[in-house]
Amino acid sequence: MQTLSDLQHPVILFDGVCNLCNSSVQQVIQHDPERKFRFASLQGALGQEVLQYFHLPADQFNSFSLLQNGQLYSKSTAAIKVMRQMNGGWKWVSYLLWIIPFFIRDFFYDFIARNRYKWFGKQESCWLPSPELKALFYD
Fold first, then answer.
1. What is the C-alpha separation between 105 and 49, in angstroms, rounded?
2. Which pLDDT band, with edges at 50, 70 and 90, does 3 fall under?
3. pTM of the shown model
């Protein structure tokens, strides 16, 4: 298995059974033509390794996270850092969101995260990428 120090791309960690999270991953893929990002579900081997390394609960998957340059960003900060690296209007959205204090951004982030299964649904198992996208995902 690849270790955290071997990672050469920013890795987006997400709840693999969450429909909102899976849609977000697909949105990033669509707006990342240079394929800068890699992806791992928090339930998978790499996701669990990251949670353990950063001393986070291994059974709570309510935060979208970004592992980049040895740092783990979570919640709205992670989302903004990802948006800033995407093509299209997402970069401008990230600048607008960045001026909002993080405690306000994260309040709304947490509210959505708590209700995401109710509002967007959940799958019985993790979403599987198509064969052409499989190389972007860690197990």
1. 27
2. low
3. 0.87
| Cβ pair 44, 33 in contact under 8 A | no
Answer whether CATH 2.60.40 is correct for domain 4-122: no
Q: How far apart are CA 119 and CA 88, in angstroms?
A: 27
Tell me the three state secondary structure of residue 50: helix
- List the chain domain ranges: 4-122
CA separation (Å) from 80 to 62, 84, 103? 17, 6, 14
* Structural tokens at position 74: 């979570």
Contact (Cβ atoms closer than 8 angstroms) between residue 74 and residue 11:
no
Distance CA 111, CA 116 (A): 9
